[in-house]
Amino acid sequence: MKPIKILLVQCEMHSWRAARAWSYNLHIGWEQGLRANQVEFLTITTPWLALAKEIIAGRTFDQVWINDLVLSSARDGGDISQTQLAMLAALAPVRVGLLTESIYDYTDSEMAELPDMQRTQAEVEKCLPHLTHVVAYDEADVAKVKHRCGLPCMWAPSPVVESLIHEDVPPPTYNQAFFSGSIYRGRQAWLEHPLLQEHLSRHASPDQDTLYPQVFDRLHSRPARRLIQNPVAIPFYSVYLNAVRCIRKRSYVRWLQGLQSGVAVVNLPHFVKSYTPRVIEGMAAGRPVLSWEIPNRPRNQALFEDGKEILLFNTPEELAGHIQRLQSDTLFAQQITENARRRIRQFHTTDKRVQQILQWIQTGKEAIYQ
Q: What domains are there in the chain, each with its CATH number?
């Protein structure tokens, strides 16, 4: 049986400030899953799409995957034009778009805090006519995509690269839980709550003390972007792509090591209506994960068993209680960590997610993550 041939179109941004929010798992880490499933693949990042014909060099594909549709809008440089979408659609009979954020299910107050969301929704919908399948991280978006566009849509929560799941983890350096992420929608109030001030801290980006941001920004600087509009740049593409792979993977490894320095990883309330990557990344780092209980997402909530693989909270009081128990009961913390690690190895590695998506495309049968 011949291997499947896939063109992976990876949206990439022009600055590390914007790009670092999309971790290795969400980004170029998909290559690991494709490779593990014996897929023959070629990766093209969006800044190089102007030279796609030269990079492809006559190769044919069974599928095109676009990762991801949220970044395919004119957002920090990851955009794909309608002409480019039409070109990609002509390359393979199957075209898959990944949606790594919630797109449709927002309240009026949330939309008021997200001024760019209407534009993002419109840009995503411009992509959909060029696709044959969609993979959504938010279970509520599945029905919306099917209803609006008539496309098959699969729910697939965020995966993690299996080779970077940590088994032997050192004791925490700090007796606090760590939160990583943007400060919005009341998150500052959580961090400043009297019950949490001694137990919860914001985790700084580990990239601040490295050259990764500067190298990444130079790879995507204006002079570099002008150069890659010309076919003379083709010999440099493999150098560029390997540099991006290296920066993103090494940055991610440092990120996981940083998560290990606290007693737990905390997922505070956010706009995306599914577990963000930091949930599964905290589990991969080898720390207990505490997450707000995302409302009206029963399939998401069933991914991990509360009290056994994850600890859910709805109030600062509940969060403080969870952290204090983990601080005082290292055996309980270890049990939570080990249970979560087994779960992600069984159902949520990038290798398995690629396998699940390929099976769904072939048979129409969606994966069950339990």
A: 5-159+349-363 (3.40.50.2000), 166-203+261-347 (3.40.50.2000)
pTM for the predicted model, two decimal places: 0.95
Residue type, 263: V
| Residues β-bridged to residue 179 | 202, 266
- For residue 96, give the nearest of 118, 121, 127 by alpha carbon: 127
Stretches in the chain below the pLDDT threshold 70? 72-77, 185
* Closest CA relative to residue 66, chosen from 135, 122, 152: 135
Q: Which helix (H) or strand (E) holds 301?
A: helix 298-301
In this predicted structure, what is the pLDDT of residue 206?
Answer: 74
Sign of CA dihedral 41, 42, 43, 44: negative
CA distance 87 to 239: 25
Chain segment 292-324, per-residue pLDDT in tens: 999 999 999 999 999 999 999 999 999 999 999
- CB contact at 8 A, 165 and 260: no
DSSP β-bridge partners for residue 67: 10, 98
